[in-house]
Amino acid sequence: MATETTTDFTLDSAAVLAEDEGGPIEGKSPWLLAWRRLRRNYVALGFLLLFVVIVVACLLAGPYAKHVAHTTPNENHLGETFIKDGKKVPIVSKGGFTGTEFKAGGIPVGPQLWHAGGRYVFGADTQGRDVAVRLLYGGLNSLKVGIGSALICTLFALVFALLAGYYGGWVDWVLSRFFDLIWAFPVLLLAIALGTALSIDGFHHAGINIPAGSLWIPTGVISFVLIPYIARPLRGQILSLREKEFIEAATAQGASSTRVMASELMPNIASSVLVFFTLIIANNILTEAGLSFLGAGVQPPNPSWGTLIADGQSRIATAPWLAIIPGVAIVLTVLSLNIFGDGLRDALDPRAKVRIER
Amino acid sequence: MVAFVIRRLIGAFLVLVAVSFITYLIFVKIPGGDPAQRIAGKLATDQNIADIRQKLHLSDPFYQQYWGMMQSLFTGSLKSYSSQLNVVNEIKKGIPATFSLCIGAGIIWLGFGILVGLISAIYAGRFSDRVITVLALIGISMPVFWLGLIARYLFAEGHPFSIFPDGEYVPLTSNPWQWFVHLLMPWWVLAVLFIGFYGRVLRGNILDTINEDYVRTAKAKGLPQRRVLVKHVLRNSLIPIVTLFGLDFAAVLGGSAILTETVFQLKGVGQYAADSVQSLDLPPIMGVTIYATFFIVLFSVVVDLLYAWLDPRIRPT
User: What are the CA-CA distances from residue A86 to residues A109, A234, B257 (Å)?
Assistant: First the structure.
């Protein structure tokens, strides 16, 4: 996202477009046409389905923990046993001498899948907590932070870009310098610094009170540091749009600034905003994982995919599933969003897809 | 051109001041409570806290404190709150590891990114292009620290496929071969994300350029395919990649490699920052932030100049 891209707007006759689309386009809205193109992209739809499945699974974390795993995400089961195929198995191995052989203790049971009647499907961690339950609750937190920060970030970026691009002048100057400033910061360093400083006492300024350990802290931090990455390209698009005749026509008809922004500019950048939104969720889930891994994101014992990997880091040799499983969850979620976002972009802006001359 | 450079350098200086000031505010104003108490720890007596406040000038107005910290940073006498080690020396100690990691990874990701982009553009729409696209997307979707963990688990000494030594940085001057072998895994882990991204960007650029009129002209006058591709298409498609590389490389040097450094215990500048942040040790964080911002600002000026040189239609304004 280094260079600002501007979209070229071309006018084609209905016949040319209809030939491209493989069907009549008269009387169809651009959104309907985009949907028709997206519908044909089975890969993108398949990965959207995967993302929906992951979201639904995480939303079912509560019922799963209660009725299937019979535990809660932060409940310790040290020193307890469970029944597997009619035999008692310790959840976290005791260690010590069995006969003459010394065995190291503290090793949790591995993934049981369905052999333990729904308990410890993905094994236990060193505290005897159910990894599958923590994975779902952690996913819920990661998704909350990822989607929440994407919403806040896109909303602010959209408003800033509209103001800067439409008004120009000093408004544009001030906002652009603000973007430049955040841009000049090393993003991850800024996020870690903010996340850590806020994780001590929370945020208690300007009448807003957020306790330490709240999910709002990583959400706010991630949305703040990523604003310029969306706002800058959007501002570029608005700058080129506002020179178009239809804006001049609207102004000449006496439309107010808010009206021009809301009903003339917004619909024209809506497709870009939608694509950015999808891709930024993926990016934010990764950022959240990185922050939590370094201890500057979601605070323990509250799980998130990042903290789960951090917990598993030191046990990678004896209990590799602790780090591997949440990582796979992140990769699947982010991958599904990236592929769907790509398909969405192709569907909304087919001109951007280049055909090869042979 | 000279005026442009001077203007950019003044701008860069202002950005450095602003960035350091904001970092200062983040750590002094946000956490609330008494900073002296926080530094002294839980078991400190009132006298300890008063001593610390006196020694670090914590009762001065904050702009004076900021000025004092900047002065001691640039004279090289700034010390960490917790370990009392000199910040500038610690950053200097971390620089060889960080630079080794970033330069090596940069070479890998640029080279393989171009290769991947070229192959998938030539075979666009065919099976190999699809496979590469999927692999590139998977590469982009992996958390770098997780990939590092998995790589260590699989390939490091004492693990299933023991190929590489496990983590740690060996100075180039003490043993070049060990330096190389120890860095192979971190280099690839850091580069994977960028290879996928650069490959996709380059693929798009090449497919855009291939339809240009001058490419058709070059083909029409009978130039061999390879020559058209390298001299006409690739040269123009690489211009945006140069910009991207400059900015990403600066970002990686300036702290985006924190996660890779931490996972492989390389003891570079990024890891120094991560460790200091955890103990809320302000002086090292100020030092690293200024070091990192310096590179980001410097490279953005270099990239602008390079861009104007590569594409004379663009004049720096």
Answer: 16, 62, 49
Helix (H) or strand (E) holding A83: strand A81-84
| Domains of chain A, each with CATH number or no CATH | 2-61+131-357 (1.10.3720.10), 77-128 (no CATH)
> At A155, is the pLDDT very low, low, confident or very high (cuts 50, 70, 90)?
very high
Q: Given a cut of 60, is residue A11 above it in pLDDT?
A: no
Phi, psi angle pair for B268, to nearest 5°:
-90, -170
Whether B149 sits inside 8 A of A330 (CB atoms) is no
Of B137, B143, B211, the CB nearest to A330: B143
Mutate to test the interface with A, among B146, B245, B286 (most CBs of A within 10 A): B146
Decide: A318 and A110 in contact? Cβ < 8 Å.
no
> Of A289, A48, A132, A229, whose CA–CA distance to B141 is shortest?
A289
Nearest to B277 among A192, A282, A327 (CB): A192
Q: Which residues sit opposite A89 in a β-bridge?
A: A82
CB A188 within 8 A of CB B256: yes
What integer is the mean pLDDT of A172-180?
Answer: 84
Nearest CA in chain B to A320: B153
Residue ranges in B211-281 assigned as alpha helix (H):
213-220, 225-227, 235-251, 258-264, 269-278
For residue B168, pLDDT beyond 80: no
Q: Give dist(CA B125, CA B196) in Å, integer.
A: 17
CA-wise closest residue to B265 among B174, B134, B172, B152: B152
Check: CB of residue B82 under 8 Å from CB of residue B241: no
Q: Is A293 on the interface with B (CB under 8 A)?
A: yes
Q: Which pLDDT score, from 0 to 100, does residue B108 have?
A: 92
Mean pLDDT of chain A: 77
Phi-psi region of A129 (alpha: psi -120 to 50; beta: other; left: phi over 0): beta
Q: What residue in B sits closest to A289 (Cα-Cα)? A: B143
Say which of A186, A293, A331 has its CB closest to residue B138. A331
Cα A220 from chain centre: 13
Point out which residues pair with A90 in neighbouring strands. Answer: A81
CA distance A318 to A185: 39
CA distances A340 to A12, A199, A275, B14, B127, Å, are: 28, 34, 9, 41, 20
Residue A96 tokens read as 């010590």
Q: How far is A252 from chain B (nearest CA, A)?
A: 33
Tell whether omega for the bond before A301 is within 30 degrees of 0, i.e. cis: yes
Backbone torsions φ then ψ of B79, nearest 5 degrees: -115, 150
* DSSP run (H or E) holding A203: strand A203-205
Contact of A60 with chain B, judged by CB distance below 8 Å, is answered with: no
- Closest to A196 measured CA to CA, from A291, A287, A288, A296: A296
> How far is the C-alpha of A283 from the C-alpha of A298, rounded, in Å?
16
- For residue A100, what are the CA distances in angstroms to A89, A92, A96, A103? 21, 21, 10, 10
Q: Which of B143, B97, B117 lies closest to B272 in space, CA to CA?
A: B97
Q: Which residues pair with A204 in a beta bridge?
A: A209
Rounded to whole angstroms, the Cα distance separating B132 from A57 reads: 30
